[in-house]
Specification:
about 240 residues; Thiol Ester Dehydrase, Chain A; 2 domains; 4 helices; eleven-stranded antiparallel beta sheet
């Protein structure tokens, strides 16, 4: 029960202009896989809601070796990989039909009391969580806070629209990834693949919010993002893209 796998197929609407699956499509698959596995283990969305709690994705790192193409079928595997203080960790692995690993990811989740907004330690909220941990982690280094230098430049201003929202009325975390990728991509580089994408989710964004995205170029192949709400300056997320 501590490992769960599912097959996914790449559809025409999942493709970039280069003919490969979008990274955001892969991230959506991760969410779907995590939801189904958590439900089987007794702490899925409905189980948590019944306890007046919810999962909040806090950090994520994805590394892709290659991207699947149209009609390609991939196998994705996930498992709870441990606990780090307030974070419940979940890792992922993607294989192509030949069994080769083409991508991995690691995520860190918080448990939030819906009424009090108080964070709860996984060991307190889920008595049997320790029993189903598979202690394998796809990255050797932990999911730390992304450090962004003070010197940043304006990149994009996004107004949150209805299609950005998820089931609880907040901006879906994959949308933040989409905003970053859209802001730095163009028709001039349709084949420029993302090697790694890392993101810290710090505060919720709601319908009508204006989110200012600023950037800092670390090197020719790496860029940092810092996003805040225009109205009050609250930091919403920070992210990092490493290009192939």
């Amino acid at each position: 029960m501590n490992l769960y796998s599912k097959e996914f197929s790449i559809s025409s609407y999942d493709l970039t202009p280069g003919g490969q699956a979008r990274l955001t499509t892969i991230a959506n698959f991760f969410q779907e896989l995590a939801y189904h596995h958590a439900s089987k283990l007794g702490f899925g969305y409905r189980d948590m809601k019944a306890r007046q709690t919810t999962w909040v994705l806090s950090r994520m790192r994805i590394r892709m070796e290659s991207y699947p193409e149209w009609d390609e079928r991939i196998d994705m595997e996930t498992w709870p990989s441990g606990v780090d203080k307030l974070f419940a960790l979940r890792d992922f692995r993607i294989r192509n039909r030949k069994g080769a690993v083409i991508g991995v990811a690691s995520t860190a989740w918080l448990i939030l009391n819906i009424e009090t907004h108080r964070l709860i330690r996984p060991k307190e909220a889920l008595e049997h969580f320790k029993m189903i941990v598979h202690p394998e982690q796809v990255f050797t280094d932990p999911l730390d806070k992304i450090e962004v230098p003070e010197e940043t430049r304006p990149l994009h201003l996004h107004s949150v629209v209805f299609s950005d929202l998820d089931i609880i009325g907040h901006v879906n975390n994959v949308k933040y990834m989409e905003w970053c990728i859209d802001a730095v991509s163009s028709s001039n580089n349709p084949d420029k693949d993302i090697r790694e994408f890392e993101i810290n989710f710090n505060h919720e964004a709601l319908l009508g919010d204006k989110i200012e995205i600023r950037t800092h170029d670390l090197a020719r192949d790496q860029i940092l993002f810092l996003a805040s709400r225009k109205e009050d300056g609250k930091e919403i997320f920070r992210a990092r893209i490493l290009w192939n």
